[in-house]
Write a structure and sequence with these properties.
This protein has 258 residues and is α/β, with parallel strands linked by helices. The protein folds into two domains: 95 residues, Malic enzyme, N-terminal domain (Rossmann fold), CATH 3.40.50; 97 residues, NAD(P)-binding Rossmann-like Domain (Rossmann fold, 3-Layer(aba) Sandwich), CATH 3.40.50. Helices cover 44% and strands 13% of the residues. It has eleven helices and eight strands. The strands form two sheets. A four-stranded parallel sheet has the order 2-1-3-4, with helices on both faces. It has a four-stranded mixed sheet with strand order 7-6-5-8. Helix 9 links the parallel strand 5 and strand 6. Helix 6 packs parallel to helix 7 and helix 8 packs across helix 9. The protein is elongated and about 75 Å long. The mean pLDDT is 96.
Length: 258
């Protein structure tokens, strides 16, 4: 693959990677009268009287919103919502191609946590679930927590939990091969962003001891003498003399690089 192939893939035969197609017939005047006025009034009345019937008469139950502000895109960093759109379209076609789930991408020009949450929460009538994508830490933690409390549909931050599920599965399988209990494992985590935190949290839930974890960010090992740590990092601050990755790796069993 080269640069031009990637650009052509996204440009031809039509710009972008997603398209909207009708799921019902619309080939004559009778179909039009059912799809729109006057026939559309009947499901509207039904949903108004019994809101749960929205899942019977609309696509909401199989429609995911892929939502980002573009502040932490793949390996590209903070490139903003507009430049992040190809990634979000890509996630939408993964949902459709691999799971048959319809998804639509929404790129939001907002970095304030409360305003961002207000925008997403207001979209609840449209979607059956929300997939948050490529939002930088630590804001991503507050955004997910806020939306999970406010919304009555599933809210999932893929960078955290999608990565954590796959990483945990790999660790479980590896420990079975070497016949080592997870409670005896000494872990080094290089990275302290959304994915690293979620992976480490899940491994702790599975039985890995917090005292057996050394986590590093861009400044080195997260230790108890460090100042200015947010609450997520404080959880993994250890009383240790290790400061570099080389120091941390001594005696470790497992390395997680994120």
């Amino acid at each position: 693959m080269n640069k031009q192939q990637a650009l052509d893939y996204h440009r031809y035969p039509f710009p972008g990677k997603i398209n909207i197609e009708a799921s019902t017939s619309l080939s004559n005047q009778a179909d039009l009268a059912l799809a729109y006025s006057p026939g559309v009034a009947e499901p509207c009345h039904a949903i108004h009287q019994s809101p749960e019937t929205v899942f019977d008469y609309t696509s909401r139950g199989n429609l995911i919103g892929v939502i980002s502000n573009g502040t932490a895109v793949l390996g590209l960093g903070d490139i903003g919502p507009l430049a992040s759109k190809p990634v979000m379209e890509g996630k939408a076609i993964l949902f459709k191609s691999f799971a048959g789930i319809n998804a639509f991408d929404l790129e939001i020009e907002e970095t304030d946590v409360n305003k961002f949450c207000d925008i997403v929460a207001a979209l609840e009538p449209t979607f059956g679930g929300i997939n948050l994508e490529d939002i930088k830490a630590p804001e991503c933690f507050a955004i997910e927590d806020n939306l999970r409390k406010r919304m009555k549909i599933p809210v999932f931050h893929d960078d955290q939990h999608g990565t954590a599920i796959v990483a945990a599965a790999a660790v479980i399988n590896a420990l079975q091969i070497v016949d080592k209990p997870i409670g005896d494992v000494r872990l080094v985590v290089s990275g302290a962003g959304a994915a690293a935190m979620a992976c480490t949290d899940l491994l702790v839930d599975l039985g890995l001891k917090i005292d057996n974890i050394l986590m590093l960010d861009s400044r080195g090992v997260i230790h108890q003498q460090r100042v200015g740590l947010d609450s997520k990092k404080q959880r993994y601050a250890r009383d240790t003399q290790s400061r570099s990755l080389a120091d941390a790796m001594h005696g470790s069993d497992l390395f997680l690089g994120l």
